[in-house]
Design a protein that fits this description.
By secondary structure, the protein is α+β, with helices and mostly antiparallel strands. Helix content is about 20%, strand content about 25%. Strand 8 and strand 9 form a beta hairpin.
Length: about 290
């Protein structure tokens, strides 16, 4: 049964810091919301920027299975995802908190209750634990989120959305236009699968890449990672790798911002697999 009200559920001293859990950039917010849509089984995501009124509004809507329990969106650490999703990805229950400190309207479909609902979370409500009213809504599927856009987002917002969509596995539109998508391992000279990941090997000149470039791709979220490479001392070329992760729960990201990989036995094994893949790629050459 859909509750009449919800409230942020976390220790008051943590609530006071909740706006600092993420970098508070448009890219971080869009990336987190895209990942939530994908986990909800969305087949499409629509992003619309609305101008002309006193505020500029960002609308992000998906056609996934919706949010069954409104309380899960404001309960820090409670993800509300299925056991299968938790096993595969270890979602932290923090994604919606990327919106903390902002005026947000969330509309979603509760599949168990066969009812749409709407919550308006004022900017101040994130840090006060005050009750947030839940109202019926005519939405029939998925989730739609509206955020008031701060001035500092405006210059880069379209670029940030396009960047978040580039390697994301679900089609994304921006004001009705389909955004370009690209295979993370495009132009790889050698491909291998290894325990739920794809390893792509590339032959690059050192001037054409940086150690700060993304190396791991988690369903569109790309992050740097220290991976092995092989340098040709006589010709100056480098053999490097990228990894596309699609079902590897043993490889984990540091929470909540997911900007770096956890240094565990799984990442050590992955590095070994990458090293082997690079030498296989070299061996396959003339």
């Amino acid at each position: 049964m859909i509750p009449a009200t919800i409230a942020t559920a976390v220790a008051p001293e943590t609530i006071a810091r909740v706006t600092r859990l993420f970098n508070n950039t448009a890219f971080d917010v869009v990336t987190e919301l895209f990942q939530n849509a994908r986990r909800a089984g969305a087949l499409a995501v629509a992003v619309v920027i609305q101008t002309g009124g006193p505020d500029t509004l960002l609308h992000i809507a998906d056609d996934g299975h919706g949010i069954a329990d409104p309380a899960s969106i404001v309960t820090l650490g409670r993800s509300g995802w299925s056991e299968e999703t938790r096993r595969a990805e270890d979602p932290a229950g923090m994604g919606v908190f990327s919106l903390a400190g902002r005026d947000v309207i969330i509309r979603s479909w509760s599949r168990p209750d066969r009812q749409g609902w709407m919550a308006h979370i004022p900017a101040s409500a994130w840090e006060t634990s005050r009750p947030i009213a839940i109202e019926p809504d005519p939405i029939m599927r998925g989730t739609a989120i509206t955020v008031r856009v701060p001035d500092e987002w405006l210059k880069t917002l379209e670029r940030d959305v396009a960047r978040a969509a580039k390697h994301y596995p679900v089609p994304v539109t921006w004001n009705g236009a389909v955004l370009p998508q690209e295979d993370w391992l495009k132009d790889a000279v050698h491909l291998e699968e290894w325990y739920g990941v794809r390893i792509g090997v590339f032959q690059k000149h050192p001037s054409h890449y940086s150690s700060r470039d993304g190396r791991l791709n988690f369903h569109g979220l790309t992050i740097p990672c220290d991976l092995p490479y092989v340098q040709e001392v006589d010709r100056g070329g480098h053999w490097i790798a990228r990894v596309d992760i699609f079902d590897a729960p043993q490889i984990q990201l540091v929470l909540p911002a997911r900007k770096e990989v956890v240094e565990n036995a799984a990442i050590a094994d992955l590095r070994h697999a990458v090293h082997v893949a690079i030498f296989r790629a070299i061996a396959a050459q003339d």
